Amino acid sequence: MDVDGQLLTIRAQRTAPRTEGAKWLVQERPAGTYLRQFSIGEGVDSANVSASYDDGVLSLVIPVSEKAKPRKIHVLSQHSTQE
């Protein structure tokens, strides 16, 4: 997996099972290499993107950078009454 700017690239390779003496007529899952690319937008903390693969499921964690997180801004008014 690579992150280059706003482009996330995932590469994988699936190998065909090898069973001695077996001849395959049909295989449900093809073997080969795969490549997927996603635009992840601005505001991503690309240094902390992580991935895990468990029981055939690829999970990606793509955190938002601190700069891009929403924040509250307190608005002061010159016309507020003070006692």
Shape: rod-shaped
Question: Major sheet, described briefly?
Answer: 3 strands, antiparallel
Mean pLDDT: 83
Helix content: under 10%
Q: What series of H and E elements makes up the topology?
A: EEEEE
Number of beta strands: 5
- Quote the beta fraction: 25-35%
Instruction: Give the structural class.
Output: mainly beta
Uncertain runs: none
**Distinct helical segment count:** 0
Distance between the termini: 60 Å
Radius of gyration of CA atoms, rounded to a whole number:
24 Å
Strand order of the largest sheet: 1-2-3
Helix and strand arrangement:
Layout: E1 2-4, E2 7-14, E3 32-39, E4 50-54, E5 57-61
Antiparallel strand pairs: 1-2, 2-3, 4-5
Can you give a write-up of this model?
- There is one protein chain.
- With 83 residues, this protein is mostly beta strands.
- The mean pLDDT is 83.
- It is built from no helices and 5 strands.
- 0% of the residues lie in helices and 35% in strands.
- It is rod-shaped.
- Strands 1-2-3 form a 3-stranded antiparallel beta sheet, with no helix packed on it. A two-stranded antiparallel ribbon has the order 4-5.
Features:
mainly beta; two-stranded antiparallel sheet; 35% strand; 83 residues; three-stranded antiparallel beta sheet
Gist?
This protein is mainly β. The protein has no helices and five strands. A three-stranded antiparallel beta sheet has the order 1-2-3, with no helix packed on it. A two-stranded antiparallel sheet has the order 4-5.
